[in-house]
Amino acid sequence: MPIIISIVIFLILTMQTFFLGGTVWLGIVGMLLSAAGVVLSFVLKNRKKYLSNVSALAGIVISVVCCLFITSGSGTGTLRQKEILLGQMVSAKTAENAEEKYADYVEAYGEDDSSALCLAQYYMRAEEADKSRSMLFKLKNTTSIDYYCTMAEWYNKFDKGNFSYVVSTLLDAVAEHPYWAKGHLMLGLSYYENNDNTSAIYYLKKAHLLDMSDGYSLCYLGVISYDRGSYKAAEKYLSDAKALAGKDGYLLSLVETYQECVCLLYTSPSPRDRG
């Protein structure tokens, strides 16, 4: 039985170390001890059964301790600690602090897309357009949802008048990720903000089909209907959006504002509604 337990622990440590972001050195120590316990058990099996069991049990106990350290995030290479550093980078109070966390991350784990993206997001929050864009250009994976989302946010924040870049980025995004509802929503809103209601309606409807639990696509379909004078359609879209809003204060406020406007104007169906 001790031998079987040692083998199971060896497999668990292997998974934690190489596939779940566990501390490499601690995982290897645990695996070596588990393996040593099994080997010694076989070597001593025919000599002294007592020593055989003791060696296996000793390997089990030390390996279990290694397991606990890995899963609790006590090591320096755990996923949890990576997440903490990345979070501290994004929420840093000063550029110096953010860059310090970035340097700590790179020293411990090497430069990767996660660290570059988080520092770019800090720079965006700090209104550092050039620095944020420079970090975005460091990303190796330029087809990920995070990349497209952050690039679109960058253009909207620092180059708002450049409609073509925003739309081009989001068109690439929905082509690469055809089932990404938020990408279709963002694209629909970009078209709406640039007075292309036909394209806006197309992508907002697609966003709703991809995620029928999200009220934003319905809300903006209601807004466009209101702008067009289709008050009956606007009333229906806004009502459905409100039912999905839950505790989203911003969405509720937006819906209720337009509902009040519709109530003031919608006394009888407009010609478009009758048509």
How would you describe what is shown here?
The protein is mainly α and 275 residues long. Among the domains are: 2-72; 80-140, no CATH class. The protein is 78% helix and 0% strand. The protein has 15 helices and no strands. α4 (79-90) runs parallel beside α6 (113-125). The longest helix is centred in the first third of the chain and has 24 residues, at 49-72. It is elongated and about 80 Å long. The relative contact order is 0.05.
Return the structural class: mainly alpha
Strand content: under 5%
Helix coverage percent: over 70%
By DSSP, the count of extended strands is 0
- The residue-averaged pLDDT reads 80
Alpha carbon gyration radius? 28 Å
Name the overall outline.
Answer: elongated
What's the N-to-C terminus distance?
A: 79 Å
Outline the low-pLDDT stretches: 70-77
Q: Tally the helices: what do you get?
A: 15
Provide the succession of SSEs.
Answer: HHHHHHHHHHHHHHH
Largest sheet: none
